[in-house]
Amino acid sequence: MQIFKNAAVVATLGLSATSAFAQEVTLRFQHFVSPASANPTYFMQPWADTIEEQSNGRIKVELYPFMQLGGSAASQFDLIRDGAIDGGWVIPGYQPNRFPEAEAMELPFMTTKSGEEASAAAWTFTQQYLMDDFADVHLIAAHMHGPGIVHKRGASVGAVEDFAGLKLRGPSRPATLLLEELGATPIGMPVPQFPEALSRGVVDGGVITWEMSPSLKLDELTDSHTDVAGDKALYNLFFIWAMNKDVYEGMPDDLRAVIDANSGMMASMWAGRAHDTGDIVGREVMAADGNEIATLSEAETDRIKALGENVTAAWIAEMDAKGFDGAALVAAAQKAVRDTTQ
Residue 227: in which H helix or E strand, if any? Predict the structure, then answer.
């Protein structure tokens, strides 16, 4: 919600919001993870500080972690759209089938292991295909994280066969489809539920980034962490940073300009870079605790890539059945990724 200081005076004098008085706005943005995790630390808080500084203190962005303003991680988009919060962090994949085109960026081995590169591709793809999907909010950034890692209790996975029977948490439909193809039993769940599911034995492990590992206490709850070989990520996750459309449009032109100056490609890459920074820290924490850090061989990675191609082919067919051009979406996502690495 906006808090307009001097609002009563403006109303009494019948003045417009952009006249006579310098309007001051407080924006409440919400997310669902620890404030000590990478995106809040290296993107959200610096972004909020930059907005305040460039607006000469006329915009203040308050950040609320752990869904402190209410609702669930899966309901974030609707909370922003409906004005329950002014803005926040959204994982569209937490609402399966609602934003199907975004899944193209999340398919197996689609992105590089650089969150910054993947996020540049995500913004390009979003501009091409997803603006209509997100038309009910004001989009600030679209980004990805770094490589998704397999974290589990016990020894690391060393071959495709080691996935058989494992109950593994997945964050999105493409990720759970890949886990199923690998022979695991995928259990889709938002990140806040993962630590409890591990501690109660509901899951044997799951896929998530290095950077989230310390805040989820995966150094204590798991024993091993496995990446695939090569420069492509096993899977990735698509995020948006957005605000309520009416709140944005109700701000004076000069304050909207501050938001605009910290939006788009630069903000998307900034958010992705935050994950890259956090990945370095997270991996170091897991290693320092004595956990096993492993990388699958190139041969086993190639076997997983082949299974990933099955997931992508099935996804294309599913999208075609829904009236989309699945192959075109995949080709566009691949091109966006190529263009960021050339």
Answer: strand 224-227
